[in-house]
Specification:
Number of helices: 3
Protein name: DUF3108 domain-containing protein
Mean pLDDT: 84
Helix content: 10-25%
Oligomer: single chain
Number of domains: 2
Keywords: Signal
Shape: globular
Largest sheet: 14 strands, antiparallel
Structural class: alpha+beta
CATH topology of the largest domain: YmcC-like fold
Order of helices and strands: HEEEHEEEEEHEEEEEE
Strand content: 35-45%
Number of strands: 14
Organism: Quisquiliibacterium transsilvanicum
CATH architecture of the largest domain: Beta Barrel
Length: 271
């Protein structure tokens, strides 16, 4: 074999050997690059989840005065105690209302409402709601997320709707959304939240009426005014809600106006 052919063969073997040696290095570099990309993607996803996660609700005890015909008239008919408790993973909301003054001669007993559930990155996730008016039978709703249904105390089950809130949790959830996503509550915008009634799930919608300075006995409060839009064929009362900016967007005032124009006005008592 000539020297030139041996040299060419040796070069070919060296080239093949060098290529084989470079394969694991290239594979290692590619794997490292993929791992870095996956880590960066996970970090971005975690940051996005953290940014989109709703805050925890405030915990504490509050008291509301309930007035007939508007709180400005001063005709107080009831007092409502309101409490939120949570451990960061689960929550409980209690509301107890009792008549006062002349109204106590007509309405006896206590109106009790309770909401229990989990706290998630999307806010409140109710699991059970109950209410009882005086001596009337208790009404409740159990939300079974594994079976994807809601069971009612006296009505057939209904399919569970994602994001549903009950009559107590809905106001707290609106406040959490307003804190985390204020752009959704600009004047004129409408926020839809499925709402648990006594026998079915309703497609509740809340229209933002913008910010409003609310006059209270303790001074003016900056609030966000929302109006619950009832379906056209419903005879539900009109509900107006004012969420307080200095109260972590909890309700400061609720006003209920029935189809006949009668008003019940619920105002937070400030220290």
């Amino acid at each position: 074999m000539s020297a030139d052919r041996m040299t060419a063969r040796r070069r070919l073997l060296l080239a093949l050997a060098g290529g084989a040696a470079g394969l694991p290095l290239a594979a290692g570099a590619a794997a490292e690059s993929l791992a870095q990309q996956a880590q960066a993607q996970q970090s971005q996803q975690a940051q996005a989840q953290q940014q989109s996660a709703l805050p925890l609700p405030p915990a504490g005890h509050w008291q509301f005065s309930v007035h007939y015909g508007g709180y400005e008239r001063g005709l107080k008919v009831a007092v409502l105690d309101y409490e939120i408790a949570h451990d960061g993973g689960r929550y409980r909301i209690d509301s107890k209302g009792r008549a006062e003054g002349l109204a106590a001669l007509v309405y006896s007993g206590v109106l009790t409402q309770e909401s229990e559930g989990r706290l998630t990155s999307r806010g409140l996730e109710p699991m059970r709601y109950r209410e009882q008016r005086g001596k009337r039978p208790e009404r409740w709703a159990q939300l079974d997320r594994r079976a994807h249904e809601v069971r009612f105390s006296s009505h057939p089950p209904a399919p569970l709707v994602d994001g549903v809130q009950d009559r107590l949790s809905v106001l707290v959830q609106l406040g959490l959304l307003a804190r985390a996503q204020p752009e959704r509550f600009a004047a004129g915008r409408v926020v839809a939240l499925p709402e648990l009634g006594s026998r079915r799930i309703e497609d509740a919608r809340y229209a933002s009426r913008g910010q409003a300075m609310l006059a209270t006995p303790s001074g003016s409060r900056r609030t966000l005014h929302l109006e619950r839009i009832a379906p056209r064929d419903a005879d539900d009362a009109r509900v107006d809600v004012w969420l307080g900016y200095d109260l972590d967007m909890l309700p400061v005032r609720l006003r209920f106006t029935d189809p006949d124009g009668r008003v019940l006005d619920q105002l937070l008592r400030f220290p």
